[in-house]
C-alpha cells in the first residue's frame, strides 16, 4: 500500500510525538511541515533530518502544495478550528490535537462539515492508545464487574509549581492564556480524563458539578520583560454522574508536587473493581471474583495481552485507509468531550449543577 503523505501543522513540543509516530508507522511519511515561527521549523528540520524544501510558513500553502494526503494539526487550541475547517474545505483528512476546539459551537461546526464531506478524521486523545486502558475497557464491557457504581480519576502534573523548572516558575506560555487555550488544567489535562472515562465505560456524562481556582495569577512573559495575567484554572475538581447512575469524580491539577505525568482511573462495581495507572506503558490492577480477595482487600496486577498494543499515528493511518479498529477518537468524541468541558467551566463559575 502506498504510504500516506502527512503534513504536520504546528512545530511546537506536541509535534514531536506526532513526528515520531509518523516515522515509526509503516503507512505514513512526512511530506511537509508548517509553522509561523521560522526557528521552530528549523529545529524540527535539524532534529529529524527533514528536507528544508518541505517547510511552509502558512497552512494554506501546505494544503495546496499537492504534497499531502492528510494533515496533523499540532497548534495551540485557538487555531484548531480554522485550520481543520480549511482542511475539510479541501477534502483533506485530518488529525487534530485535543481539545478539538475552543467551545462546543466550534466543534459542532467541525463535525457538521466533516460529515458533509464523509472525511476521515481523528481527535488526538492519546491515552486511548495505552494498552492497559484498552484492556480495562474490554473487562468493563464484558460485564464481569456487574453493575457499576463509581468511577474516579486523577490527572496530576507539577509544572505550575514555582521552583519546578530550573528554580523559577514556568513563564506565561499559551496554556496559561484563556484567549488561546480556553481553559487551563481542565482543557489541557482534564479533557484526557473525560475521554478516558467515556472510552472505558462507553457512557456519557449526564451532569457535572465543579470547583476550580488559580493559584498564581501572574507569570513572567516569555521575553522576560515584565509579567502577564494568568486567566485560566490551575486545578479543577469535577463530580457528577454518567449514564445509568454511575457516580463520577475527577481531580485535575498542575500543582501536584512530585508528579510528572500521573494518571489514575478506578472503577467499582457490584462484583469487582479495577485500577489503572499510567506508569510508562500503564498498568492494571484488579479485585474480582473471589471472597478472599474482596474481604482481604487484595489487589493483583494483571498482565496486559500484547493484542492491546497500539500507536496513535498508525491508528490515524488505519482510519484514513478505512481499516481502523474503531477505537480512535473521532470528531464525534471531540464534541462529546467539549460539551463536558464547557459544562464543567459553567458549573465552576456559577456554583450550580449543569446537566448535559
What would you say this structure looks like, in words?
- This protein is α/β, with parallel strands linked by helices and 356 residues long.
- It folds into two domains: 4-126, NAD(P)-binding Rossmann-like Domain (Rossmann fold); 130-310 and 320-355, Dihydrodipicolinate Reductase, domain 2.
- It is 33% helix and 26% strand.
- The chain has a nine-stranded mixed beta sheet with strand order 16-15-14-13-7-12-11-8-17. The protein has a six-stranded parallel beta sheet with strand order 3-2-1-4-5-6, with helices on both faces.
- It starts with a strand and ends with a strand.
- The mean pLDDT is 95.
Fold topology:
Layout: E1 4-9, H1 15-24, E2 28-34, H2 38-48, E3 55-56, H3 59-63, E4 70-73, H4 80-89, E5 94-97, H5 104-117, E6 121-124, H6 131-142, E7 148-156, H7 178-181, H8 185-201, E8 205-213, E9 218-220, E10 227-229, E11 235-242, E12 246-253, E13 262-269, E14 272-277, E15 283-288, H9 291-296, E16 300-301, H10 312-320, H11 331-350, E17 354-355
Parallel strand pairs: 1-2, 1-4, 2-3, 4-5, 5-6, 7-12
Antiparallel strand pairs: 7-13, 8-11, 8-17, 9-10, 11-12, 13-14, 14-15, 15-16
Amino acid at each position: 500500500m502506498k504510504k500516506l503523505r502527512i503534513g504536520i501543522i504546528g512545530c511546537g513540543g506536541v509535534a514531536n510525538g506526532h513526528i515520531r509516530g509518523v516515522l515509526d508507522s509503516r503507512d505514513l511519511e512526512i511530506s511537509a511541515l508548517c509553522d509561523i515561527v521560522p526557528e521552530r521549523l528549523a529545529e524540527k528540520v535539524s532534529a529529524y533530518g527533514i528536507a528544508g524544501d518541505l517547510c511552509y510558513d502558512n497552512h494554506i500553502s501546505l494544503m495546496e502544495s499537492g504534497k499531502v494526503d492528510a494533515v496533523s494539526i499540532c497548534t495551540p487550541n485557538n487555531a484548531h478550528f480554522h485550520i481543520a475547517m480549511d482542511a475539510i474545505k479541501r477534502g483533506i483528512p485530518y488529525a487534530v490535537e485535543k481539545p478539538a476546539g475552543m467551545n462546543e459551537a466550534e466543534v459542532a461546526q467541525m463535525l457538521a462539515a466533516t460529515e458533509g464531506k464523509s472525511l476521515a478524521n481523528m481527535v488526538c486523545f492519546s491515552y486511548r492508545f495505552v494498552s492497559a486502558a484498552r484492556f480495562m475497557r474490554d473487562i468493563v464491557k464484558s460485564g464481569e464487574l456487574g453493575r457499576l457504581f463509581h468511577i474516579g480519576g486523577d490527572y496530576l502534573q507539577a509544572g505550575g509549581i514555582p521552583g519546578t523548572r530550573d528554580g523559577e516558575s514556568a513563564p506565561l506560555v499559551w496554556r496559561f492564556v484563556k484567549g488561546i487555550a480556553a481553559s487551563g488544567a481542565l482543557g489541557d489535562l482534564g479533557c484526557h480524563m473525560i475521554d478516558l472515562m467515556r472510552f472505558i465505560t462507553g457512557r456519557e456524562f449526564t451532569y457535572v458539578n465543579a470547583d476550580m481556582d488559580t493559584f498564581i495569577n501572574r507569570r513572567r512573559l516569555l521575553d522576560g520583560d515584565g509579567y502577564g495575567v494568568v486567566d485560566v484554572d490551575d486545578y479543577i475538581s469535577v463530580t457528577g454522574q454518567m449514564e445509568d447512575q454511575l457516580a463520577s469524580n475527577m481531580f485535575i491539577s498542575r500543582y501536584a508536587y512530585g508528579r510528572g505525568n500521573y494518571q489514575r482511573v478506578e472503577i467499582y462495581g457490584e462484583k469487582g473493581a479495577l485500577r489503572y495507572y499510567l506508569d510508562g506503558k500503564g498498568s492494571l490492577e484488579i479485585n474480582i471474583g473471589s471472597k478472599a480477595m474482596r474481604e482481604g482487600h487484595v489487589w493483583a496486577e494483571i498482565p496486559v495481552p500484547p493484542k492491546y498494543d497500539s500507536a496513535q499515528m498508525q491508528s490515524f493511518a488505519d482510519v484514513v485507509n478505512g481499516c481502523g479498529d474503531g477505537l480512535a477518537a473521532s470528531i464525534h468524541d471531540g464534541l462529546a468531550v467539549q460539551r463536558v468541558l464547557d459544562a464543567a467551566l459553567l458549573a465552576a463559575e456559577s456554583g450550580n449543577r449543569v446537566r448535559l
